[in-house]
Design goal:
Length: 202
Amino acid sequence: CPSIDAEYALVMDSNGTVYFERNATSPTQIASITKIMTAIVALDAIERGEASLDTTVTVSERAATVGESSAGLIAGDTMPLGTALLALMVPSGNDAAISISETLAESEEAFVDLMNQKAAELGCVDTVFANAHGLDAGEFAGDQHSCAADVAKIAQYAMKNETFRNAVGGGDTTIQVTRSGAKADIFLESTDAFMDIYEYAI
């Protein structure tokens, strides 16, 4: 078995064959891994024709001030959904997560309902989402959780989408938003250190 520190783990191939697991169905908080499901719900909306990569995402005051990991967005910024997905996945942007959820549903709460519906559709056994970003302390404390087995199913589904693969596989990047009527560049630094230490990481 691999020598790892993780309390919860699962190694699965693209076909779903499990090679290693540890406490894989034990519920735990998954923090920003939540954003994979946020991206999935957005990409599914595109697949259904309810949105496109060009759909305009507007950053609200609430999104801009959520705190913790951020893409550096400020209230009033606008950008295409494709750009917002980069802001979501590359630096793990909580601001982008709320912006996407508020754009594609009547509210973040309604968007979270779609996240939980998708988890059930994918056969998740013990997953509850309570927000679109994964913060789980202070005002965001609650029952949100998942397990390694469910995260594997969620990641497997996400990686079938070329837009998602490109977003998480490209490393650092620079995006452009419209800010106060002008174009503004924002540098996004990837939070995925695994890409730098394992040559086979995608």
